[in-house]
């Protein structure tokens, strides 16, 4: 085990620091790191390098190149920098590269060197130039702070939701501060800056001078300052080679250290981890690296080449031309197990397992020892935890093996922690692979969460790995595989060299109908890349037609959108498209489109009927739908028009339309109505009273009731009222008038076309039995019985029925024989029946 | 009497849940969301309320929007500001918002939705209370409500489990079914694994069977609907029924013990039943005599109330019967029924035609005349041109020229057509069928397709044996088949179709009928595995009528259920009858 702790360096009494290699870099740098602007994203993120030609005195003739590499040095992108001079580079939390230019413009690039967007840090900078800039991370996202030529600070706490805040002026500031940093405290971003021996804290309201407690005297200038990953701690490096370490609130001092090096360090970063025993600062000079903490001695490393430090949550990454290393404080579990001569339960368990493998009885001894102390559970937990902190798979394995071995001797040890650690390590080893190049530690991974890691893989277009991880971890499809496939598809549609057909087919093959994949989203992306045809093809795969519509509208494929909307059965959607079309097309085309879509047409017609009558008319006109046009005008003749002339005119138009529709019947009926209307008007003028809008029948009735028989006759002749109707009409009207004399005259005027039974009925209705009887005698033989019964002459009815020898009539009469008076009649009928049966 | 259910009849699902659900939603909306404290009926009058906000609960109709707009604009003119809220039920339509916008008040009102689509009118009857469905869909070709139907079905399947067997006939049925399926797929997993409570669902378009809906109803509940109009499960009995000077609103459902026993009876039996009942009641009252104090106390505390209640109901229904009788004899109901039966059976067409003509000439009733004309047209595959013209002319002379539009509507809906010469018809048919097979057009209701639609009633009637052959008198007291709801003269087509399909569990062997119904492309069956469905649930059948069903159909299917040991549950867009259908098609002067 001794060799394992060889790279452990103690700092003070309690903590060890170790540095191990993550990757040997193979990135063939043309430039020295010191000549470049460098930005490396935290959480094992990518590295951006921009050779900085503007720093040199003479203007560069060649354009610089912006290179982006993975943490393992695999090239991700390389592009010629064509924009203005860059002051600073930095990565946002979404792994977007922010390039702050001298003129205050910030250009945002994707991981693959694709330009995303740009924004400006304000107009003021245009003249004053940007002297320096920092990109920092806050709870809200990523922030940018700049220092202008006028020695003013401007910052934005979240570039995703850009709000520029100009910081107050620092009184008496004539030259650039010797060092400065952005600080985040209580969700507010501040600027801490050093001017000579003074420190100032800028918030958006004021500038206040601050003094670190317990600062050694004799400081005339601060050369470097560093804030920890979580903004909790601050370190200051003075020109006396003295390092002050304390809380970022400047309320408390943690420790101090005098390194006696007066040269300004190249970089200074915090190296700590959550719940760490020790907090240390790593200071880098050209060829020297120093780890400084609350101890009299520091740890020193020699740097063979130009190196760059990247602070992480739980350590510091250090990369150079040839290697990429990780420096961190050895976690407790690892320390317990691996410390020389450790008797911690985990250490014993590891030993026991090794002996067991050697088939040595010592295994039992060790195990017994742990068990006697009752620490087996703790031992297993320790091994599991330590495995997480190991970088080498071999070591992870042996620790896990030990844990698994120990587990055998435990009842009811919950398996989750072991299983999850195995899974997590598998994922971690996969992404740490050289080809992937995301050197996450276990703590970073837990902080980042699997969802974000998957996002980052997707961002690197490592779709297969992402999907494998999802499947391996059995993530729900909607969060896992489907989401990744959708991202893949969105990327796929951007491949301009592949034909629309192939892309669409490839996407459909992969995605099939995986739940949770929205083809319309992918299509929207395709459209965003200017591939309308592809978008349409992709939309074909979208099972919910409703989803297709908004995009189709956006792509100006309104007609297609219309048929899709109709397919969806959602009338609201159809209506939306219709209104869209109405604005987009000229009226003629709009109507033509409607014509081919009956469902949409009827929907629109319904709307027009209530809201836009004129449009409705135009619609019918366009279609040469004369029948409906006729109906339209008919409706207008009584609903819209008030004056008689207008009404007649509307009817005339209707009649014309009906003729065109070859609906002679309707045309004739309409013409009749015109005549009737005019006539009614005349009647009103001449006779007074209400005639308008009565039906023909009612008009004649009204005339008769008013005693204008002549007129009535005339009207009946003019409008060819059939005899039957006229007789019914007159009969009813005269009975209503109780003009029995006239009725009798009328009945004798000629043979009744409706028979005489109605006369009987109507008289009885008016309770005039006397008159009724007059007509009963004239009723024809078939209805005679009925008529006689109506007037209540049961006896005679019986006689007639018997005479007719009609069984049905006989029963009818019989059913009317109710009172005692009809007893004789009933007998008579019964006798007749009996007689009939005999025969 | 009042045939009891078979002992093995399955239990009905509890639909009161729907009521509770809707009520709670509404209370939440009104009280919590919108702080409503007083309710008024929207009736196109200026709102007199002086409160700070007005909240409208309306159907999403353009007319309603304009009413609201007029109110808001009137307030604006008067310089008055208040808050306006519109709650749409069952859903909001974009067109409505458009109208609000065009009227310039979109910014003044806030909108909300009350997704209430299923009202349980009775233990076995759910109504969507959308009478406008019929005109909107079958006349105007407007499909807006189909989605609502699909959503209602979706709600039912989430509450009562999936339906293992689905059948349907009609274009609208198919569309509603497909939309519903899409909804289910989108919300996958919710109904999965649930035990189905209802084994079958049958969707049927009203235009598959207009005939039944056009016939005069003679079962008690149908007659009450025809005579007094049942609204939302309750009826207003006027003074002539209550034999007092007040009108009385009466709920008609299974809760009413007397009504429950006579609702499905042919009217000729009802009087006898009621008088028997009255005698029984009297006997129970009479038991009082000779009781000692204790018995009397018991009687008063336990039975008297029930008896009084029954007494009240009994006198009401007797009153209703008398009133119906009076009205019917006045109108010569026997003649009318005789004519209807003649039309159904297809004899004495000339006589029937002149009867109708006389009916029109005498101005008996515009709606009745129209109904008879439609019945004649459908049973005869359209009127012969001469009759078509003369009947229409007579009608216009009697009732005014605006009915030219009514006729145009009826023609479009296929209710009143002219017999077309053969060749043009086939041409039209092929055109329509081409439209239908075209994929996109498959979902389209071509409002004009009905022009070419032949009703083929006679042929269907023969195929399905709708006119029962009767030797001697049809005993209405002990019905043999569903024809009893029309005095034994006619088995309702819609019910017969349902019976046949359920018997076969598919449309197999009914191809010819389906073709004659012009529904070749719109008859479907969809069966899923039944292993989860209990035998009990498989005898529960949900029948969905798109465009309305009549009480006669409900009675007929209730009868069928009793015969076969099924129970039917009815879901309809609205309860309808011949008069409502005709009114929906009529143009009236506003």
If you had to describe this structure to a student in words, what would you say it looks like?
The complex is a heterodimer of chains A (839) and B (590). By secondary structure, chain A is α+β, with helices and mostly antiparallel strands. In chain A, 46% of the residues lie in helices and 20% in strands. A five-stranded antiparallel sheet of chain A has the order 1-2-29-28-27, with no helix packed on it. Chain A has a four-stranded antiparallel sheet with strand order 3-4-5-6, with no helix packed on it. Chain B is built from 23 helices and 13 strands. In chain B, helix 5 crosses helix 6 (171-186), helix 14 runs antiparallel to helix 15 and helix 15 crosses helix 23. Chain B has helices spanning 16-33, 62-77, 94-102, 132-139, 144-160, 171-186, 210-214, 220-228, 239-242, 257-262, 267-286, 293-330, 333-345, 349-361, 366-379, 385-399, 403-413, 422-437, 457-464, 493-504, 511-516, 551-564, 578-585, and strands spanning 53-58, 83-88, 109-113, 119-122, 125-127, 165-169, 200-205, 230-231, 234-237, 248-251, 523-527, 540-546, 567-572. Chain B starts with 15 loop residues before the first helix and ends in a 5-residue tail after the last helix. Chain B is an alpha/beta fold. In chain B, strands 4-5-13-12-7-6-11 form a seven-stranded mixed sheet, with helices on both faces. Residues 423-427 and 434-452 of chain B have low confidence and may be disordered. The longest helix of chain B has 38 residues, at 293-330. At the A-B interface, helix 16, helix 17, helix 19, helix 21 and helix 23 of A face helix 2, helix 3, helix 5, helix 6 and helix 14 of B. Chain B: Keywords: Protein transport, Transport.
First-to-last CA distance of chain B: 47 Å
Number of strands of chain B: 13
Poorly predicted regions of chain A are: none
- Please give the order of strands in the largest beta sheet of chain B: 4-5-13-12-7-6-11
> What structural category do the secondary elements of chain B indicate?
alpha/beta
Mean pLDDT of chain B: 85
Q: Helix coverage percent of residues of chain B?
A: 40-55%
Strand line-up of the largest beta sheet of chain A: 1-2-29-28-27
């Amino acid at each position: 085990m001794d060799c394992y702790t060889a790279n452990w360096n103690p700092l003070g009494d309690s903590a060890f620091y170790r540095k191990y290699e993550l990757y040997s870099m193979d990135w063939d740098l043309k430039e020295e790191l010191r000549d470049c602007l460098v930005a490396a994203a935290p959480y094992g993120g990518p590295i951006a390098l921009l050779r900085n030609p503007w720093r040199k005195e003479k203007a560069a003739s060649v354009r610089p190149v912006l290179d982006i590499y993975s943490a393992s040095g695999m090239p991700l992108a390389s592009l010629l920098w064509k924009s203005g001079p860059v002051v600073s580079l930095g990565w946002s939390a979404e792994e977007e590269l922010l390039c702050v230019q001298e003129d205050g413009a910030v250009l945002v690039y994707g991981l693959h060197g694709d330009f995303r967007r740009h924004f400006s840090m304000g107009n003021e900078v245009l003249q004053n130039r940007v002297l320096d800039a920092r990109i920092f991370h806050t709870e809200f996202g990523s922030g940018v702070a700049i220092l202008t030529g006028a020695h003013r600070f401007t910052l934005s706490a979240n570039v995703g939701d850009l709000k520029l805040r100009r910081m107050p002026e620092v009184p008496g500031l004539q030259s650039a501060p010797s060092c400065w940093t952005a600080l985040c405290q209580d969700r507010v971003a501040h600027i801490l800056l050093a001017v000579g021996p003074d420190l100032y804290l800028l918030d958006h309201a004021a500038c206040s001078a601050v003094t670190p407690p317990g600062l050694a005297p004799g400081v005339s200038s601060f050369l470097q300052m560093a804030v920890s990953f979580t903004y909790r701690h601050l370190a200051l490096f003075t020109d006396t080679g003295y390092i002050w370490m304390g809380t970022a609130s400047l309320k408390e001092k943690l420790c101090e250290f005098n390194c006696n090096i007066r040269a300004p360090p190249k970089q200074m970063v915090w190296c700590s981890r959550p719940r760490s025993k020790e907090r240390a600062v790593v200071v880098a000079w050209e060829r020297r690296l120093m780890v400084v903490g609350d101890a009299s001695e520091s740890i020193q490393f020699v740097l063979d080449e130009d190196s760059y430090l990247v602070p992480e949550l739980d350590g510091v990454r250090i990369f150079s031309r040839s290697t990429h290393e990780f420096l961190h404080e050895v976690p407790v579990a690892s320390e317990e197990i691996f410390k020389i001569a450790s008797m911690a339960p985990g250490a014993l368990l590891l030993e026991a397992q090794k002996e067991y493998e050697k088939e040595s009885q010592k295994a039992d001894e060790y195990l017994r020892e742990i068990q006697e102390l009752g620490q087996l559970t703790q031992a297993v937990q320790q091994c599991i935890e330590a495995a997480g902190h190991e970088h080498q798979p071999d070591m992870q394995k042996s620790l896990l093996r030990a844990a698994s071995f120990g587990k055998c001797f435990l009842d009811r040890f919950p398996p989750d922690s072991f299983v999850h650690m195995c899974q997590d390590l598998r994922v971690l080893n996969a992404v740490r692979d050289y080809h992937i190049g995301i050197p996450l530690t276990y703590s970073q991974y837990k902080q980042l969460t699997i969802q974000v890691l998957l996002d980052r893989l997707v961002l690197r277009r490592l779709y297969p790995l992402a999907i494998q991880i999802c499947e391996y971890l059995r993530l729900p499809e909607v969060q896992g595989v489907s989401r990744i496939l959708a991202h893949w598809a969105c990327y796929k549609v951007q491949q301009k060299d592949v034909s629309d057909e192939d892309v669409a087919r490839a996407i459909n093959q992969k995605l099939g109908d995986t739940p949770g994949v929205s083809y319309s989203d992918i299509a929207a992306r395709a459209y965003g890349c200017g591939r309308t045809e592809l978008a349409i093809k992709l939309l074909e795969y979208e099972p919910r037609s409703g989803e297709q519509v908004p995009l189709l509208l956006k792509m100006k494929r309104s007609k297609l959108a219309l048929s899709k909307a109709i397919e969806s059965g959602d009338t609201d959607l159809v209506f939306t498209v219709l209104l869209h079309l109405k604005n987009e097309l000229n009226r003629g085309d709009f109507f033509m489109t409607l014509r081919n879509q009956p469902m949409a047409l009827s929907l629109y017609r319904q709307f027009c009927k209530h809201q836009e009558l004129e449009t409705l008319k135009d619609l019918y006109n366009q279609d040469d739908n004369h029948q409906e046009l006729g109906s339209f005008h008919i409706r207008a003749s009584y609903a819209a028009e008030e004056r008689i002339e207008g009404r007649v005119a509307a009817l005339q138009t209707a009649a014309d339309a009906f003729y065109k529709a070859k609906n002679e019947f309707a045309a004739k009926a309409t013409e009749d109505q015109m005549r009737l209307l005019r006539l009614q008007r005349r009647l009103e003028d001449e006779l007074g009273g209400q005639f308008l809008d009565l039906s023909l029948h009612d008009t004649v009735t009204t005339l008769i009731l008013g005693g204008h028989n002549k007129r009535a006759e005339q009207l009946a002749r003019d409008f060819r009222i059939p005899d039957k109707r006229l007789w019914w009409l007159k009969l009813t009207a005269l009975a209503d008038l109780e003009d029995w004399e006239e009725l009798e005259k009328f009945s004798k005027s000629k043979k009744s076309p409706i028979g005489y039974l109605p006369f009987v009925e109507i008289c009885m209705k008016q309770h005039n039995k006397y008159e009724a009887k007059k007509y009963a005698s004239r009723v024809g033989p078939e209805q005679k019985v009925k008529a006689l019964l109506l007037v209540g002459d049961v006896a005679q009815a019986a006689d007639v029925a018997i005479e007719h020898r009609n069984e049905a009539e006989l029963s009818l009469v019989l059913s009317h024989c109710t009172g005692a008076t009809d007893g004789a009649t009933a007998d008579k009928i019964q006798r007749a029946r009996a007689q009939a049966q005999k025969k | 009497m009042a045939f009891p259910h078979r002992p093995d009849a399955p239990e009905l699902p509890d639909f009161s849940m729907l009521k509770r659900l809707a009520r709670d939603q509404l209370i939440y909306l009104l009280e919590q969301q919108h702080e409503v404290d007083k309710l008024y009926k929207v009736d196109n009058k200026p709102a007199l309320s002086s409160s700070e906000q007005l909240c409208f609960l309306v159907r999403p109709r353009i007319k309603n929007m304009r009413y609201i707009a007029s109110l808001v604009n009137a307030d604006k003119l008067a310089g008055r500001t208040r808050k306006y809220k519109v709650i749409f039920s069952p859903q909001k339509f974009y067109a409505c918002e458009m109208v609000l916008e065009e009227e310039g008040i979109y910014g003044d009102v806030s909108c909300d939705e009350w997704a209430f689509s299923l009202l349980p009118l009775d233990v076995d009857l759910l109504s969507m209370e959308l009478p406008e469905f019929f005109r909107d869909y079958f006349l105007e070709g407007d499909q807006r409500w189909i989605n609502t139907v699909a959503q209602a079905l979706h709600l039912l399947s989430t509450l009562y489990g999936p339906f293992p067997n689905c059948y349907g006939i009609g274009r609208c049925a198919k569309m509603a079914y497909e939309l519903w399926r899409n909804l289910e797929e989108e919300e996958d997993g919710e109904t999965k694994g649930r035990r189905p409570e209802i084994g079958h669902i049958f969707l049927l378009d009203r235009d598959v069977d207009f005939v039944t809906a056009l016939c005069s109803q003679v079962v008690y509940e149908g007659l009450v609907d025809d005579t007094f109009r049942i609204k939302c499960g309750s009826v207003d009995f006027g003074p002539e029924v209550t034999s007092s000077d007040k009108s009385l609103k009466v709920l008609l459902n299974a809760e009413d013990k007397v009504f429950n026993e006579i609702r499905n009876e042919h009217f000729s039996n009802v009087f006898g039943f009621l008088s028997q009942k009255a005698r029984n009641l009297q006997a129970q009252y009479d038991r009082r005599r000779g009781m000692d104090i204790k018995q009397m106390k018991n009687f008063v505390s336990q039975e008297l109330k029930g008896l009084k209640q029954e007494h009240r109901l009994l006198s009401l229904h007797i009153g209703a019967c008398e009133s119906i009788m009076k009205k019917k004899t006045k109108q010569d109901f026997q003649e009318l029924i005789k004519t209807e039966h003649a039309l159904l059976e297809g004899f004495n067409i000339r006589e029937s035609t002149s009867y109708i003509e006389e009916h029109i000439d005498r101005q008996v009733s515009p709606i009745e005349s129209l109904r008879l004309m439609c019945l004649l047209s459908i049973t005869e595959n359209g009127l012969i041109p001469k009759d078509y013209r003369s009947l229409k002319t007579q009608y216009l002379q009697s009732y005014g020229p605006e009915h030219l539009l009514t006729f145009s509507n009826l023609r479009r809906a296929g209710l009143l057509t002219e017999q077309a010469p053969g060749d043009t018809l086939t041409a039209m048919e092929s055109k329509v069928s081409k439209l239908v097979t075209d994929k996109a057009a498959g979902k389209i209701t071509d409002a004009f397709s009905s022009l070419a639609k032949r009703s083929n009633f006679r042929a269907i009637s023969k195929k399905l044996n709708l006119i029962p052959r009767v030797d001697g008198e049809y005993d209405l007291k002990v019905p043999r088949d569903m024809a009893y709801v029309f005095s034994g003269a006619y088995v309702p087509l819609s019910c017969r179709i349902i019976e046949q399909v359920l018997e076969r569990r598919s449309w197999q062997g009914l191809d010819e009928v389906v073709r004659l119904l012009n529904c070749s492309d719109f008859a479907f069956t969809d069966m899923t595995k039944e292993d989860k469905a209990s035998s009990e649930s498989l005898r529960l059948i949900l029948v969905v009528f798109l465009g309305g069903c009549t009480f006669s159909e409900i009675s007929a299917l209730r009868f069928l259920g009793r015969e076969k040991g099924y129970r039917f549950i009815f879901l309809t867009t609205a309860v309808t009858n011949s008069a409502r259908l005709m009114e929906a098609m009529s143009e009236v002067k506003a």
